[in-house]
Design brief:
Structural class: alpha/beta
Distance between the termini: 20 Å
Strand content: 5-15%
Shape: globular
Number of helices: 16
Radius of gyration: 20 Å
Order of helices and strands: EEHEEHHEEHEEHHEHEHHHHHHHHH
Number of strands: 10
Bound molecules: 3,5,7,3',4'-pentahydroxyflavone
CATH topology: 2-enoyl-CoA Hydratase, Chain A, domain 1
CATH class: Alpha Beta
Largest sheet: 6 strands, mixed
């Protein structure tokens, strides 16, 4: 069992704590497998009525996955270990999405990439004044994975594409407003929330409602119209042209941000979200209202398990292809290895990326290599 995952049963509540603080709890294969094992055991134990997921110490819930190890795998063994990591991580994401008991995720700090993948499928997603949420994969030449195609395509307006392209960081108030979080609690109420849930696991919703406080105004409300306007298109070239044609400070800042990200990541993310939106437009079930807070999505969309599995199957294809692209090794080098934050993207501009190239990245894998949920 992983030393970086603490697991306990308190009464009839299972408690998983991420405990790899020196890496902001970034998920390793070992941690992912430990979480799978414990969650499967608790799923089959009728005594476990609810599950809490939090982090043991430090300023982050979970900063992502161990992408430095994935990069080493790409450079040293052709990426087999990297693909194995994503296969198991997505298995964990799907297990949580389909979990037959309420799961509460405490996003009390940095919640990015892989951390988003274990928080979003939870029935209850608690934000605090410490929450810092982002899908920052454009900085490392990956793409917004761990089910982001599902979650981002269900946000109001063009917030999903905006988050995917810019890697913008949302605070707890913004997460609640967008529907990414279901509750906003002051961090000093979390210990009480957990103790009360452990004492009364059938009253999770009431307990979190009672401890909720009014968050500060979400900055995102003021920018939502601009986001919908400038990020309206599913074509990266259109978005860049719209920002270039505007001389406002906001447009200039967002344009500079996009120019720093991997063009390939951005094109893949736009297509991924557009295709996910098209798939669920046949049967729309919004994650969030954007303006209206929809709260706790009862039933956790479990009847959509097959549709979520389809999303993960697609994202695994993208992961298998994207880690083999030069931008991934280069992006991880620039951000996490050399930390010069000066990646040299290849192709360097969107015009260098053809539809044929994208078709190859989205194409099915050979039959035996496709992703499937845990058996
Ligand atoms: C973009 C990312 C990631 C990132 C930084 C980015 C990411 C990720 C990590 C990360 C952080 C701390 C660690 C670690 C990984 O950083 O996905 O192993 O200790 O996992 O700008 O996408």
């Amino acid at each position: 069992m992983s030393e970086n995952i603490h697991h306990h049963i308190h009464g009839s509540v299972g408690h998983l704590s991420l405990a790899r603080p020196r890496a902001i709890n970034a998920l390793t294969l070992d941690m992912v497998e430990a979480m799978q094992r414990v969650l499967l055991e608790w799923r089959d134990d009728p005594a476990v009525q609810a599950v809490l997921i939090d982090h043991a110490e430090g300023r982050g819930f979970c900063a992502g996955g161990d992408v430095a190890a994935v990069r080493r795998s790409v450079l040293e063994d052709g990426g087999a270990a990297g693909r194995a990591f994503f296969r198991e991580e997505y298995g964990l994401n799907h297990l949580l999405f389909t979990y037959p008991r309420p799961v509460v995720a405490f996003m009390d700090g940095i919640t990015m990439g892989g951390g988003v993948g274990i928080a979003m499928p939870a029935t209850f997603r608690v934000a605090t004044e410490n929450t810092l949420f982002a899908m920052p994969e454009g900085a490392i030449g990956l793409f917004p994975d761990v089910g982001a195609g599902w979650y981002l395509s269900r946000l109001a307006g063009r917030i999903g594409p905006f988050l995917a392209l810019t890697g913008a960081r949302l605070d707890g108030a913004e997460c609640l407003w967008a529907g990414l979080a279901t509750h906003y609690l002051p961090s000093d109420a979390l210990a009480q929330a957990k103790a009360r849930i452990i004492a009364a696991p059938d009253a999770v919703a009431t307990i979190l409602d009672e401890l909720s406080v009014q968050p500060p105004e979400a900055r995102l409300t003021r920018n939502a119209d601009k986001i919908d306007h400038f990020f309206a298109s599913d074509r990266l070239e259109d978005i860049l042209a719209a920002l270039e044609a505007d001389d406002s400070k906001w447009a200039g800042k967002e344009l500079a941000t996009l120019r720093s990200k991997s063009p390939l990541t951005m094109k893949v993310a736009l297509r991924q979200i557009a295709e996910a939106r098209r798939r669920h437009e046949l049967d729309p079930r919004p994650l969030a209202g954007g303006v209206e807070q929809t709260g706790r999505d009862p039933g956790i969309r479990r009847d959509d398990a097959a549709a979520f599995a389809e999303e993960m199957r697609i994202e695994y294809r993208l992961a298998a292809r994207m880690i083999a692209e030069p931008d991934f090794a280069e992006g991880v080098r620039a951000v996490l290895v050399d930390k010069d934050n000066a990646p040299r993207w290849n192709p360097a501009t969107p015009e260098g990326i053809s539809e044929v190239k994208l078709d190859a990245i989205f194409a099915p894998l050979p039959h035996g290599d496709e992703w499937a949920p845990l058996a």
